Automatic annotation (TrEMBL):
<protein>
    <submittedName>
        <fullName>DUF2277 domain-containing protein</fullName>
    </submittedName>
</protein>
<dbReference type="InterPro" id="IPR018735">
    <property type="entry name" value="DUF2277"/>
</dbReference>
<dbReference type="Pfam" id="PF10041">
    <property type="entry name" value="DUF2277"/>
</dbReference>
Length: 72
């Protein structure tokens, strides 16, 4: 149904874009909902979930402190 979601935090990933975070959120919502593309009556809930998970994921990545990593 969907490819594996990749690790997006350093040192596993560098230069992670907003599109990368959104793609991971989309894959997650597809996986848990069982829909690759929702029917019209579910599209709003599906899209809202993707946006909320994108925001939560970005906040998580921004707040992680990676030990041994150089501070930027």
């Amino acid at each position: 149904m969907c490819r594996s979601i990749k690790t997006l935090r350093p040192p596993y990933a560098e230069d992670v874009s907003e599109d990368d975070v959104r793609a991971a959120a989309l894959q997650y919502v597809r996986k848990i909902s069982g829909f690759r593309a929702p029917a019209a009556h579910n599209a709003e809930a599906f899209d809202r979930a993707v946006e909320e998970i994108t925001r939560a994921s970005a906040a998580l990545l921004d707040s992680l402190e990676i030990r041994g990593a150089a501070k930027v």
